[in-house]
Write a sequence for this structure.
């Protein structure tokens, strides 16, 4: 017998969770489209050189390469997409004249990572991306924040905070401290602030782990950003992997941490005032502060409460991808799950594929993480059926009547399931209760003869008898709305 277990890093989704995940995706789609975002799709299979364009060795280690039958893996030209952003860059470079700019898109699809599987991290998972391409406006930045807010409200998350920063503020801070050559290292350390705290980040800021130069793999050439990062890594030390080398002095590390920590308390307007007092003389930092002030005001105008907006000066998100505003979203009381929606602004989305400048801003809902969080918090219905109604099957000779009842309800857009076999009532009621049907429609031989039916509430077990068959749809509709 073949072992039926799934491949490492993948999972089977049972109906109870799949139904809720589909409901969340449906609410996200409705939110995206209400805000003018159009759906696109791209192939799960991409050319390998397209995917490798985003990063260096670390990204390449995560890519699942695909070999055709009879082909050696090293000969493969194809790989599975590991996110939806690189495919968007390729898509825009190829179709920008067809879709026009500014262009709002959303894309919900499976992505694949070749990384080690662990709790909460899968090799196959969904991403829900939404982006505005072709605008540098603070309005576009704010629109992404509004979609985050409206999307989480639509799926039933009761409380959350949208945490904001601007990469230009961090760049201005490091430039002012004379630490620009160590930007990648500092951002990498600050990105761990929520996980390891101030003391851990202070240690990370001072020391770096040396990385050997990657061997020539014969793959796509590194990008300019990869080369700059590699130069920085080599400047730390050429020592073997794992040797801790000093990068910043204790004094410099404290200056960085003190600046982002001391300006991180209070309302968004108070934090921005503190940042302006500290860094406002630096042009880049001032531009970032002004952008955040405009975005926060627009979020407030769009109905986002001030308590849901947090300016967090230490928020870094990645090494070199984002160039402006940065978003992270935490569910109140469940911060240990991490961000459920993250993103930011990038100056040149498709620069590796076209000479045309295509600035953009966007974010991505972590669908699997959010679904699991909501399930653990008890915010999801425990149902393993999509049908509100179960039509009871009494006897085979009346199958035509039961089919007629089910079809009449379905034509009225009431999801209904007909039990396929004539089984004892107790067994069929147990089936309905265990799967989450709200009502059972009962029409035994006597009801069929008298053109009536009974309606049983599966939660309360209360049953209405002798209801007129001719009023089946309005009676069931009213019961579902009650």
């Amino acid at each position: 017998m073949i072992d039926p277990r799934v491949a490492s890093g993948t999972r089977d989704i049972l109906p109870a969770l799949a139904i809720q995940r589909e409901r969340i995706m449906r609410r996200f789609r409705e939110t995206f489209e209400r805000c003018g975002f159009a759906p696109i799709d791209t192939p799960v299979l991409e050319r390998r050189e397209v995917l490798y364009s985003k990063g260096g060795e670390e990204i390449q280690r995560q890519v699942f390469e695909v070999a055709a039958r009879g082909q050696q893996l090293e000969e493969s030209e194809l790989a599975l997409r590991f996110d939806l952003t690189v495919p968007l860059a390729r898509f825009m470079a190829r179709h920008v004249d067809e879709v026009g700019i500014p262009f709002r898109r959303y894309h919900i699809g499976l992505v694949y990572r070749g990384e080690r599987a662990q709790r909460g991290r899968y090799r196959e998972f969904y991403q829900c991306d939404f982006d505005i391409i072709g605008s540098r406006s603070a309005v576009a930045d704010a629109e992404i924040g509004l979609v985050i807010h409206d999307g989480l409200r639509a799926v039933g998350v009761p409380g959350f905070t949208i945490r904001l920063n601007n990469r230009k503020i961090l760049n201005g801070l490091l430039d002012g401290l004379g630490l620009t050559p160590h930007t990648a290292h500092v951002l990498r350390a600050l990105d761990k602030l929520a996980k390891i705290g101030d003391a851990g980040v202070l240690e990370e800021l001072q020391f770096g782990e040396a990385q050997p130069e990657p061997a020539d793999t014969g793959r796509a050439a590194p990008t300019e950003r990869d080369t700059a990062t590699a130069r920085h890594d080599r400047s730390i030390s050429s020592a073997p992997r794992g040797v801790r080398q000093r990068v910043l002095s204790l004094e410099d590390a404290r200056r960085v941490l003190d600046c982002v920590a001391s300006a991180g308390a209070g309302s968004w307007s108070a934090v921005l005032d503190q940042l302006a007092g500290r860094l406002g003389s630096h042009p880049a930092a001032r531009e970032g502060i002004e952008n955040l002030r405009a975005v926060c005001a627009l979020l407030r105008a769009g109905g986002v409460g001030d308590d849901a907006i947090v300016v967090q000066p230490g928020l870094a998100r990645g090494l070199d991808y984002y160039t402006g505003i940065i978003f992270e979203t935490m569910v109140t009381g469940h911060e240990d799950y991490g961000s459920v929606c993250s993103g930011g602004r990038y100056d040149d989305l498709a620069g590796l594929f076209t000479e045309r400048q295509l600035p953009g801003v966007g974010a991505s809902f972590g669908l699997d993480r959010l679904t699991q969080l909501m399930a653990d918090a008890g915010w999801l219905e425990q149902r393993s059926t999509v049908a509100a109604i179960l039509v009871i099957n009494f006897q085979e000779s009346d199958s035509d009547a039961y089919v007629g009842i089910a079809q009449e309800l379905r034509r009225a857009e009431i999801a209904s399931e007909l039990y396929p076999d004539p089984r004892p009532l107790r067994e069929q009621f147990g089936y309905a209760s265990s799967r989450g049907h709200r009502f059972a429609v009962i029409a035994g031989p006597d009801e069929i003869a008298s053109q009536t039916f009974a309606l049983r509430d599966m939660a309360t077990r209360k049953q209405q008898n002798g209801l007129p068959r001719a009023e089946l749809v309005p009676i069931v509709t009213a019961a579902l709305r009650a």
The chain has a mean pLDDT of 87. Residues 357 and 365 are 26 Å apart (CA to CA).
